[in-house]
Amino acid sequence: MSSILSLRGISKAFGAVVVADGLNLELAPGEALGMLGPNGAGKTSLFGIISGALAPNAGEVSFDGKDITRLPPPARCRLGIARSYQIPQPFGDMTVFENLTVAAAFAKGRRETEVYHQCAAILIDCGLADKANRRASSLTLLDRKRLELARALATEPKLLLLDEVAGGLSESECDQLVELIKRIRREKGVSMIWIEHIVHALVAVVDRVVVLSGGTFIADGKPSEVVVHPKVVEIYMGISADD
């Protein structure tokens, strides 16, 4: 089966700090990939390279069989790449519904009136229908996270990039978000890469996990195998792989 996303030889450095050192990655259509790694490992920078916000120093990004390495973010969004942000970034003075219609209309080059029904359905799916007319700035953290997901879904993505969407939530709120992401996978069939530090949330959803550290992937495999990988345990628990 061909990959929906391919990274080949991706390198990126900020001065002396190397965040990607010849990275290669393949993502299958419909696959959910989890990405772990310590703070500063370059995970969000890699999302920037995939979404077009950052240019790699070397390497190639291919999406759905096309070389998109030099395409700007709006063009990648129209091809089907959408992302959420670790800190939600809604248009605070707009209503929840307006946030969605802007995203949907911009992504597909349509008038806002043409996407009303689509956006209304997404609000229901994401549990935000009763907050449609509220200003986005008035939402709780959980609902702002829901809105981040809803705005990404409004662009009709083939690939969804999730950046620490569970961060800052209580355990019950995290469980609610996990169930929403599971439902999105089940009903939309979208491919997904999810960066997350809350490991139990991640492994409840994804098919595969990679671990980024020092600019390279130090582990890649089934979630149950990766979380007990000696190098991963060393990074997260401070227990030497040689002990």
Extended strand count = 10
Radius of gyration: 18 Å
Strand order of the largest sheet: 6-7-8-3-9-10
CATH class of the largest domain: Alpha Beta
What portion of residues is helical? 25-40%
- Major sheet details: 6 strands, mixed
Q: How would you describe the shape?
A: globular
The structural domain count equals 2
Structural class estimated from helices and strands: alpha/beta
> CATH superfamily of the largest domain, called what?
P-loop containing nucleotide triphosphate hydrolases
Return the CATH architecture of the largest domain: 3-Layer(aba) Sandwich
CATH topology of the largest domain: Rossmann fold
> Ends: how far apart?
40 Å
> Unreliable runs, pLDDT <50, ≥5 residues?
239-243
Q: What is the beta-strand fraction?
A: 15-25%
Number of helices: 9
Report the average pLDDT across residues: 90
Order of helices and strands: EEEHEEHEHHHEHEHEEHH
Question: How does this structure look, described?
Answer:
- The protein has helices spanning 43-51, 73-79, 96-108, 116-125, 141-154, 171-188, 199-203, 223-226, 230-237; strands at residues 5-14, 17-27, 32-36, 58-63, 66-67, 81-83, 159-163, 191-195, 208-213, 216-221.
- The chain has 243 residues and is of the alpha/beta class.
- The chain folds into two domains: 1-80 and 157-243, P-loop containing nucleotide triphosphate hydrolases (Rossmann fold, 3-Layer(aba) Sandwich), CATH 3.40.50.300; 91-156, no CATH class.
- A six-stranded mixed sheet has the order 6-7-8-3-9-10, sandwiched between helices. A four-stranded antiparallel sheet has the order 2-1-4-5, with helices on one face.
- β7, α6 and β8 (191-195) form a beta-alpha-beta unit.
- α3 crosses α4, α3 (96-108) runs parallel beside α5 and α4 crosses α5.
- The radius of gyration is 18 Å and the shape is globular.
